[in-house]
Amino acid sequence: QVQLVESGGGLVQPGGSLRLSCAASGSIFSIDSMGWYSRAPGKERELVAEITSGGMTNYAESVKGRFTISRDNAKNTVYLQMNSLKPEDTAVYYCNAWLRIRSADWRLYNYWGQGTQVTVSS
To answer: Is the separation of the CB atoms in 77 and 85 below 8 Å?
Structure first.
């Protein structure tokens, strides 16, 4: 019914940049918020950044000043610009969305993308 499709991951050297994107599609009435989560080796999945439909943002302390989250509400798409990448940023990055489904009910539903690998290594 609803899908989140991610792209932009890959291999990059320390200090490099990547831009992740995630497009939501399907029977969407509205999106309350979208965000990015990471799961590094040996660690639990954690919030990287999130943004509401109104543009309010929140970042993990470890990425402040390096990563920027943005969105295109018309395209139901969220982006994560990652600069000054470090080896410790290596992780699988997952897109997440809280949304309302068209012709369903008033409730918010939570969806996850499949994840995209980001590897920072020399």
So the answer is: no
DSSP state letter for 11: E
- Which among 97, 83, 80 has a CA at the least distance from the CA of 21? 80
Burial of 53 from C-beta contacts in 10 A (0-12 / 13-18 / 19+): middle
CB of 48 closer than 8 Å to CB of 37: yes
pLDDT tens-digit series, residues 37-89 = 999 989 999 999 999 989 999 999 999 999 999 999 899 999 999 999 999 99
- Which position has the token pair 């509401």? 52
Q: Yes or no: say if 66 and 18 are a contact pair by the CB < 8 Å rule.
A: no
121 contacts 90 by C-beta, under 8 angstroms? yes
